[in-house]
Amino acid sequence: MNKLQGKVAIITGGASGIGEATAHQFATHGARAIVIADVQDEKGQRVAASIGSNICTYIHCDVSDEEQVKNLVDSTVKAHGSLDIIFSNAGIGRATLTCDQTVLDMDLSAYDKLMAVSARGMAACVKHAGKAMVEGHVRGSIVCTASIAASVSSENFVDYIMSKHAVLGLVRCASLKLGAYGIRVNCVSPGPIGTPLLKE
Fold first, then answer.
1. Nearest CA to 190 among 142, 141, 144, 146?
2. Is 58 a catalytic residue?
3. Is the model's pTM score more than 0.85?
4. What's the CA gap between 150 and 142, in Å, rounded?
5. Which residue(s) pair with 184 in the sheet?
6. Nearest residue to 158 (alpha-carbon basis) of 190, 192, 115, 191
7. Are strands 33-38 and 141-145 parallel, antiparallel or unpaired?
8. Are 10 and 189 in contact (CB under 8 A)?
9. What's the rounded Cα separation, in Å, for the pair 146 and 124?
């Protein structure tokens, strides 16, 4: 089946785990061009090569840096003419090696690093992909990786849970604005999956 025939897609966090699997699925479903964006250069290049350089390319992109996200989107549109899909999937699992942080002992410096990638980075991707789709008159699709953590509360994992609640809020707000242009904004909220991130 070629559900994505002729489509151009960006996948952030595409070098491993859910992002890598999605890149392969996009290729299977006929995407014309897939751009993998990640900070894991060796892994990202390997995934792109496994899919085929005629379809898939790798770009180094730290989503916590808005300028890098803008350049990612702009270069994709320049190379392929449009952007139809972005899967904003880059994120980090927790700010510290300690899983049992509560609100009373949060490491706020580490929290800032987590939020820079998992919330601010997500916002940058939605912002710039949305602009490209609006300007290109593309009725595209924006998908963000949230988590079941966006629907729960806990004494622990406070930083991670906050970041995923932020993603859910972003998706709800962006869908209202971008829906007027025919752009769908959704999130996926997986539970624990045996990805390299979880195993860490």
1. 146
2. no
3. yes
4. 18
5. 141
6. 115
7. unpaired
8. no
9. 15
Give the separation between CA 133 and CA 85, rounded to whole angstroms.
9
Cα distance between residue 8 and residue 80, in whole Å: 7
Place of tokens 């988590």: 147
Any idea which residue has 């972005």 for tokens? 86
Instruction: Give the span between the Cα atoms of 168 and 171, in whole angstroms.
Output: 5
142 contacts 86 by C-beta, under 8 angstroms: yes
Question: What is the rounded distance in angstroms from the CA atom of residue 121 to the CA atom of residue 166?
Answer: 11
Q: Strand locations in 140-196, DSSP E?
A: 141-145, 184-188
Give the domains, in start order, of the chain with CATH numbers: 8-198 (3.40.50.720)
6-47 pLDDT, tens digit per residue, is 999 999 999 999 999 999 999 999 999 999 999 999 999 999
**Which two tokens mark 12?**
């952030």
Helix axes 158-179, 121-135, angle to 10 degrees: 10
Go through the chain and tell me how many residues it has.
200
Please provide the distance, in angstroms rounded to a whole number, between the alpha carbons at the two ends of the chain: 35
